[in-house]
Amino acid sequence: MAMKICPFICVVWFISFVLLAKAADDKGLGASFIFGDSLVDAGNNNYLPTLSKANIRPNGIDFKASGGNPTGRYTNGRTIGDIVGQELGQPNFAVPFLAPNSTGKAILYGVNYASGGGGILNATGRIFVNRLGMDVQIDYFNITRKQIDKLLTPSKAKDYISKKSFFSITVGANDFLNNYLLPVLSIGARISQSPDSFVDDMIKHLRGQLTRLYQLDARKFVVGNVGPIGCIPYQKTINQLKQDQCVELPNKLAVQYNGRLKDLLAELTDNLPGSTFLYANVYDLVMELITNYDKYGFSTASRACCGNGGQFAGIVPCGPTSSMCSDRSAHVFWDPYHPSEAANVLLAKKLLDGDRRYISPMNLRQLKDI
């Protein structure tokens, strides 16, 4: 009996797999591969012995797919990566690489390699003990790449990766906040290394990382710049600023890096045949929300919804003992560091459909169609 049933089941599975692949092909959908830090981490840090974790309540309280249970996302709901994937027709969220279910055909929808505390430079985030930096994240993508070869055959896998799949990179903020600007640990580095030299290191490493992804058949990239990190509730709180003030040095470093990043992406587009690198102007997007928060339906852009300490609840991260606002959709920031889902929805919409002020040389829907 078993001998008769098994071939039947195998045939049914094969047919369903072919139909799945055909449906994806017909709609022009491929995988969404997400790299970066806690802004887009979907749960990789759950599987690391690290001080940077978000798998505790009330994180994820508005994440419908989990029934409001924490997933390891550093926000109350979906990340920008989640929202973009849904809007572009992905039926499932990209699975965290370290999760047990990141196997088989699930990886054809995409894989998330992002890690809270991770950065471009390998030294970034060491205060958290463990985290996945960009070099390790790309090592992990190399493993996924070989798995897709086995699932689709090498020639079909190459087409699937290069023509239909997106590679989004949201990284760089930790290289400043949890490396160059970190008190005590980095003061020696700041004495010996100028901001210009530090940014040079970041750009040099990122050039190598993006080139390595290209060599693994990535072609459609969207790379976010560093947001106004001097305006997050944590920075405002520890520097005892007023509601409408931001810390100057972190923002100045972000702007300096962002200018170099834009030039790097233009350079890579010219030098890597068939590649398209989109520059996502997260800095100006977030600054627009912070400056004109009331215009977008928010009641505050300075106070964290979930956190404790100081005027802006910006010192103690979100957890079970934190105070939480009554209207989460009215806050730009969920916790001392990360945007709320309501803010992420607005940011994602601008990346999907916005003009060149916020994403260039085209938006994400246009990238999908090339």
Automatic annotation (TrEMBL):
GO molecular function: hydrolase activity, acting on ester bonds
GO annotation terms (biological process): lipid catabolic process
Family (UniProt): Belongs to the 'GDSL' lipolytic enzyme family.
UniProt-recorded name of the protein: Lipase
CDD domains from the UniProt entry: SGNH_plant_lipase_like (cd01837)
Pfam families cross-referenced by the UniProt entry: Lipase_GDSL
Keywords associated with the record: Hydrolase, Lipid degradation, Lipid metabolism, Signal
InterPro entries the record matches: GDSL, GDSL_Est/Lipase, SGNH_hydro_sf, SGNH_plant_lipase-like
Range of residues in the leader sequence: 1-23
Upper classification of the organism: Eukaryota, Viridiplantae, Streptophyta, Embryophyta, Tracheophyta
Top-level division of the source organism's lineage: Eukaryota
Classification via PANTHER family: GDSL ESTERASE_LIPASE (PTHR45648:SF1), GDSL LIPASE/ACYLHYDROLASE FAMILY PROTEIN (AFU_ORTHOLOGUE AFUA_4G14700) (PTHR45648)
